[in-house]
Design brief:
- The structure is a homodimer of 314-residue chains.
- Chain A is globular, with a radius of gyration of 18 Å.
- Chain A is an alpha/beta fold.
- Chain A is built from 13 helices and 10 strands.
């Protein structure tokens, strides 16, 4: 549905605002698993997560269309909020970020550091959405959706573009699923360039709205309960769900213990700070049953309270 | 005292066993300080610290001389032990590692994972040294000194070689000091190539045997008391002390709180796991008073119990 050219166009548009993250390997992990494992470290991305790609795509698309943007508002459990706050700072406009009252302190601190205003509501994503839309109407700020938007989706898809441009025969790419924006973008981009690369979605078993919805054949609400705070989504997006149905090859569910083990392994062996939501793809990659393959795990982010690491891994 | 060629020779000899670590920058840290800050991330080095360079240099030098090496033994608070264990594994010989009873669990686990045998003694470096030499005599294993050895020093000096080969007008390089092996190697290498680059040694204020010794003009014993477990050295080395006197431009002392802040900053903003001993150079770089300079902090390692991060930073 998206053309190859549309990803090149977005990539060029957002290039001034993002890092092109370089794949990282660990011999130890290769030996452990019998596969060649690569990590796409979006934890090393600007603002500490992939979300800057989508936010940059949306804001630059609107400015390209000549729209006057006097402020930005969004609802976000944190990483998307940081990305929107960062983009507002870059373009010297105001930002209001609606976050749940259980968001990690590191994410709140970072949003404030970018100069955005924070509005706190309850833990449900529906509460955040309602508040953000209310602010958007009252203040005339532009609402930037966290995932259910084609500009945002194409922005996240630039990760797929960077992967297909690697000089590497990739067999499978593992991608965390929250609302589905990241995997919609990556899978539609990868399939446009190279349908032979398998795209595998990964959800915590205790928060798998996409898996539940795919099985039912329709978007279904769940009650998320996972340490992966960025993946506590109640229901897949309206736009992302059909893209996942069309382009994603398979889904893998991971246990909370597997998420913790993957986090600890990456931190101990690769010296990289990753957040639980970013570790789910590594967890799935580590239990891949096929051998001798080139596997990539997209590590979506690295924003977490470092003081809470031992608490999370307990 | 060492020629340029001698560093090239060592670098070529150890290249198969090490990573050439790439400098890392953080815009946030640059903005915070008004300098261009670079981190030489030896935490991403094989075995998680720079120590592999010296160990590889020593072992390969002996093999080049045609010496039969039936086993390796060393005394180490951890990182050097890991490096020796790793080299023994590479060459398929035995290793015995003498460590203090307060060494971090992550380091002990890693040494065991490389298949070496661990011998535990008290916390003083003199106890470890005596035990290692005893084993060396009884078993006929080759003793690999942690720092007081010209092959080891030249091995660590390859970091200096990589730095002078960077296309970058470096003003100052900050280097942690324990026994002085790392800074002896780096400073003698850098001064051989480019005497204009200033080499600054960094010690915890609560464990500054080099600073104390330099002031007295002779090697002096101290009682170390710092969270930087790799820098708890009682006295500078016999070989390293005169090299530091000759080649190091200045010394900076850092408080325990400054070490913790530097660790937290690198983990939060750069998503890199570094150990307290590796953070002292960053702490010194962060409080540099000159502005508009290109500064490099050698982050010596990243081996620590991730479960103890919040305890260390408290």
């Amino acid at each position: 549905m998206f053309t190859k050219d549309s990803f090149y166009e977005v990539k060029e548009r957002i290039n001034p605002y993002i890092h092109e993250t370089k794949l990282i390997q660990s011999k130890t992990l290769n030996q452990l698993t019998g596969n060649q494992l690569f990590i796409k470290p979006e934890c090393l991305q600007k603002t500490g997560s992939f979300k800057i790609r989508g936010a940059a795509s949306k804001v630059t698309a609107l400015r390209q269309q000549g729209k006057e943007v006097k402020g930005l508002v969004t609802a976000s459990s944190g990483n998307h909020g940081q990305a929107v706050a960062y983009m507002a700072k870059i373009f010297n406009i105001k930002a209001m970020i609606v976050i749940p009252n259980n968001a990690p302190l590191a994410k709140i601190k970072a949003i404030k550091a970018y100069g955005a205003e924070i509005v706190t509501v309850g833990p449900k994503s529906s509460e955040r959405l309602a508040k953000a839309q209310e602010i958007s109407q009252e203040m005339g700020y532009l609402y930037i959706p966290p995932y259910d938007d084609y500009d945002v989706i194409r922005g996240q898809g630039t990760i797929g573009l960077e992967l297909v441009k690697e000089n590497l025969a990739i067999d499978k790419v593992f991608v965390p699923i929250g609302g589905g924006g990241l995997i919609s973008g990556i899978s539609s981009c990868i399939k446009a360039f190279n349908p032979g690369i398998k795209v595998i979605g990964v959800e915590p078993k205790q928060s798998c709205c996409m898996n539940t919805s795919l099985k039912k054949g329709e978007r279904t609400e769940i009650t998320p309960n996972t340490i992966a705070d960025g993946l506590r989504t109640v229901m897949p997006g309206e736009l992302t769900f059909p893209l996942v149905q069309e382009y994603v090859d398979d889904l893998v569910l991971v246990e909370e213990e597997e998420i913790k083990e993957a986090m600890a392994l990456v931190m101990e062996r690769m010296k990289l700070i990753i957040e639980p939501s970013g570790a789910v793809s590594v967890a799935a990659m580590l239990k891949e049953e096929e051998k001798g393959k080139n596997l990539v795990a997209v590590v979506s982010g690295g924003n977490l309270d470092i003081m809470s690491i031992s608490e999370i891994l307990k």
